[in-house]
Amino acid sequence: MLRLEPRSTQSFAAAWLSPLMALVLTVITGGVIFLAMGKDPSTALYIYFVEPLTTTSGLSEVAVKAGPLILIGIGLSFGFRAGIWNIGAEGQYIAGAIAGGGLAVYFYESESTLLLPAMLVLGTLGGMAWAAVPALLKTRFNANEILVSLMLVYVAELLLVHLVQGPWRNPQGWGFPGTRLFPDAATMPLLFSGKRVHLGTLITLAVPFIAWFILARTRFGFTVRVFGSAPLAARHAGVHGHRMIWQSLLIGGGLAGLAGVIEATGTIGQLVPNISPGYGFTAIIVAFLGRLHPLGVLLAGIAIAVTYIGGEGAQISAGLPKAVTSLFQGIILFYLLAFDLFTRYRIIVSSRATE
Amino acid sequence: MPELIIASVMTMMTAATPLVFAATGELICERSGVLNLGVEGMMLIGAVFGFATAAVTGNAPLGLLVAGASGILASLIFAFLTLTLLSNQVATGLALTIFGTGLSALFGFDYVGETIDRIAAIHLPVLSDLPVVGPLLFGHDPLVYLGLILLTGVAWFLNRSRSGMILRAVGDSDVSAHAIGYPVVLIRYTAVAFGGLMAGLGGGYLSLVYTPLWAENMAAGRGWIAIALVVFATWRPERVLFGAILFGSIMILQLNAQAAGLGIPAAFMSMLPYIATIVVLVLISRDAIKIRLNAPACLGRPFRAER
Lengths: 355, 307
Hints:
Structural class of chain A: mainly alpha
Number of helices of chain A: 14
Number of strands of chain B: 0
Largest sheet of chain B: none
CATH topology of chain B: ABC transporter involved in vitamin B12 uptake, BtuC
Number of helices of chain B: 13
CATH class of chain B: Mainly Alpha
Strand content of chain B: under 5%
Oligomer: heterodimer
Strand content of chain A: under 5%
């Protein structure tokens, strides 16, 4: 007979082994899926998980893709720790891109060095504003933040489509949806010529370390940790639930908005309808895979970014649909959640005779 | 003019039906104490496998069966993780939605642009030809009726039957139900599987009747709206129908307004169902006591049998 016995504290080893096990099992499952699709598994797996890391341009692309995932993932991990489920980061990302990018649309002839910093600030505020809606409705009217933040994703997507097809459409764009290309003053400087890695990627890399410091060393970080693990104790210690909801949604929204405007000013250089390949949703997986720990999120963001690039490579060279990537992402999360059993419980093997 | 109104009501019912299916299933699942946020993913899985079956065999009713069965299979992944491995229900539900989105897009890749013969509206001699009431009462497609029958059955089951009472007991106090001797985990597995069946059927309705074709992400948030409908209905099946019809009307209003060309940009009209969901959630949730009294007390909590 197998039975479960709760651990008094979470197993540290199991907590960090389970993401690795999840990744390994996802690769194996991926091989089986490729086999079922009639593709050579070893070639396909190589394209997905190894090839992106073998060339400098591949590495540059991984960094570009990991950036938004890490930023959003860090922001979400604050809320998830506190038990506040902001799953509308995709909408906050788009709102940030709209708010920040709008500035470049209106000042498309500007050469001011203030333009780019102003866009980053506006983008962050845009994401925060979008996240403020579920925060307000949750604290004032008790409305479920999961559903409200998610509904706002669709609203943001539709708003972006409307803007880039209508009032903000590039007059010289031959009717294609999309704004004017941003002026130089509104684009992130590239770090290396010929590669897409830009200044925004560097900003992104700093954020996990700042978040780690806040979480480990500040009073606010302490309250986040306590609120998530022991809400009642937190209440006795004077941590206010409403304030925690506001703080975690604003942090999540702000970082998602920042990611959106960095993507618009760095990688894309204009606003287009498909500004996100689902970063806001994938970042949820990144946050869990990184164990809601800032440095873990950094690593998880890179790992998931590899599958994005691999997915693009596989689409081109092996004719595999891009959707394989999101299938893998779902499978990773399934395995991770399954392995989490071992962090919270001990498996006891007992013979019936002893019962 | 009457023709226009009748046509609007008919289309409204087709827009409401996938929500009736998905919300009724989620309602049973939540009443047993399990919050499954994977409805959107299960709908997409049902939609794609149902459509593929119909496209390959030419048999749309068979496609519908497959849609329901694939919804059940998808829900069992969720059930195994949350009920046997005690994983977090919110995170697992999200994983199911992400998985379903990916799986359906991958599997449906070859079926984009294919067409099938949709499940046709019923036509009863004499009755369906009656003026006004004919089409309104006897002119829908069979699944509209199936949805209403299942909803009525669920309402009877929860309010009147002994098994329904046990299901509610499991959702309201899993520990006591277990102590009395009811198999809590097994009952929850069944409830989750019923939710999967209904979400699969709702998805199948989209690809086999409503459109009828397969397009990536074609559920377009209906799975999430269905979850919101359960809150809107304060976990009472009889109110699900009202909510689904409300949303069906909003979707039709939006389409008609776009067709009429009122000068409001199409994107803003398309936002209506999503904004309406938020408004409805706010209106119903502001009464915190009402929510607390009606919501299953164990909703979202993992249960582990102590001996």
